[in-house]
Amino acid sequence: MRTITCNLPDSLYAALKERMTGDKETCDHLVARALAKSLGTPLHTLFQVSTSAALVEGLYQGAVRVSRLLRHGDFGLGTFADLDGEMVVLEGVCYQVSSTGTVVTVDGERLIPYAVVTRFNPDFRKNHQTISTMNDLVAACDQLRDSNNLFYAFRATGNFHTVKARVMKSVSEGTTLKMAASGQQEFSFDELRGTLVGLWSPEFAASFSVPGYHFHFLSEDRQKGGHVLECRASDVDIEGCSIGEMHVSLPETEEFLKADLSRDPVEDLLSAERSRASRASAPIPFDC
Ligand SMILES: [Zn+2]
To answer: What is the pTM of this model?
Structure first.
């Protein structure tokens, strides 16, 4: 957050004061919203390409260019055509973590099938000296959320003692997400600084989004990353904001237009988002 000082005409100042009193809104919020509108830079809006239901049905063809995605947000996550790795968008740069474990920056011309981004403007932050497990991270983020019915973005930066991550491997056309998940690569990283890029989506948005928490990791040196299954960290700064608006860009590919997307995607999504070990055991609550 930055602080600015500026001079206003008396009439605008009076109108601003009147609105602050009438709507019980802070000056910061009113000015930020007005500037966002006038400068064409939406605040706290999610921009999503395609839907989770389409992913579950195996629609992984590229639909939107990375350059367009980055015009709508500087922070988020997603995947690539044919599920070729995990996407992390951080500080306005799009990274591809591939199943070999390498991380590269992605060219703006690349077409992608699914992603969710926002302009990251944190409204809250809290430092946690210790995060011992994924459940700890979830509990820490839960404390910062004040509703189950809005979307939230979370950025957690700290010293990671362990990160267990999953990276999807490229699949052939017609492979469902559930089948694709069985070929995912798992990595374990130790003792490195990095950032978790996280989104929380409400249960009611399950046809569009991955319900609950979804975290992707990127190391500070931008050499390691993936979809987070477990982590242990210290001195973690968690920042975030609620998001009350969503813009969904639906693919206009032949495959999307003709697909049957009426099936409830939740069970397959939960299965695909968990680790191989978890899937082999009894069902567990979805936590990342
Ligand atoms: Zn993921």
So the answer is: 0.83
